[in-house]
């Protein structure tokens, strides 16, 4: 039976195999698997950095992942609101709009 492809394998496939390997093996295989922080805390930190840096494309993956990892909708709203004062209103508004769409698309699971 063939092993299921990761999201980055599906997205980049053979186009950038080394980036795919580093993403799967190092970033998610080692960095995210470290014992110093919970998956929940890593998600909250990652979302915060992505909001601050205005990386909306990456938020599309990491906002649902944060919810999956136990960060609540209210915690994400609070974090994004807080970040608005330090990283800019447009960054926060973009992120909160994405979060709203994600939460409204699957209301029973959030």
CATH class of the largest domain: Mainly Alpha
Share of β-strand residues: under 5%
Q: What's the CATH superfamily of the largest domain, by name?
A: AhpD-like
CATH topology of the largest domain: AhpD-like
Output mean pLDDT: 92
Q: Structural class, from helix and strand content?
A: mainly alpha
Q: Could you describe the largest sheet, including whether it forms a barrel? A: none
CA radius of gyration is 15 Å
Number of helices: 6
**Overall geometric form:** globular
CATH architecture of the largest domain: Up-down Bundle
Number of strand elements: 0
Counting structural domains, the number is 2
Enzyme class: lyase
Pfam family, one: CMD
EC number: 4.1.1.44
Protein name: 4-carboxymuconolactone decarboxylase
Attribute tags:
110 residues, 2 domains, 6 helices, 0% strand, globular, lyase, 4-carboxymuconolactone decarboxylase, EC 4.1.1.44, peroxiredoxin activity, 4CMD/NDH-1_regulator
Description:
By secondary structure, the protein is mainly α. It folds into two domains: about 30 residues, no CATH class; about 70 residues, AhpD-like (Up-down Bundle), CATH 1.20.1290. The chain is about 75% helix and about 0% strand. α3 runs antiparallel to α4, α3 packs parallel to α5 and α4 crosses α6. The longest helix is centred in the last third of the chain and has 17 residues. The radius of gyration is 15 Å and the shape is globular. The mean pLDDT is about 90.
